[in-house]
Specification:
By secondary structure, the protein is mainly β. It is 4% helix and 44% strand.
Length: 111
């Protein structure tokens, strides 16, 4: 079935309907961005405007298909849970680990 997630007017809360029925309060720091994670692996980046209107974009694709419609997001997949968090750039773009040399004894730049 999936879920529909939409901002509740004039508040910083989100209504989730479908496989999961709940209302989530959006935590925020000094940033208008927040993240919404779903059990299928989808990660959405939400942004509030000055008028508390919500805009969405996909930060990471999951198993489900994501559609946006008039300020709401629709995830078409079986969803078991949904969570919301403050924006963290390390979650959206994880740091790449340093490349390890294949043969460190042959690498003259290895420490």
């Amino acid at each position: 079935m999936g879920v529909l997630i939409e901002a509740i007017a004039d508040s910083v809360r989100l209504r989730v309907t479908g496989d999961v029925e709940t209302v989530l309060t959006v935590p925020y720091d000094d940033d208008d961005r927040f993240l919404v994670g779903f059990s299928d692996g989808t990660l959405l980046l939400g942004t509030y405007s000055d008028k508390l209107e919500c805009e969405w974009e996909v930060a990471r694709d999951g198993a489900g298909m994501v559609r946006f419609n008039n300020g709401s997001a629709i995830i078409e997949w079986h969803i078991e849970w949904v969570t919301v968090s403050v924006f963290d750039a390390n979650v959206v773009e994880p740091a790449q680990p340093d490349v390890l040399p294949l043969f460190p004894e042959l690498d003259r730049w290895a420490a």
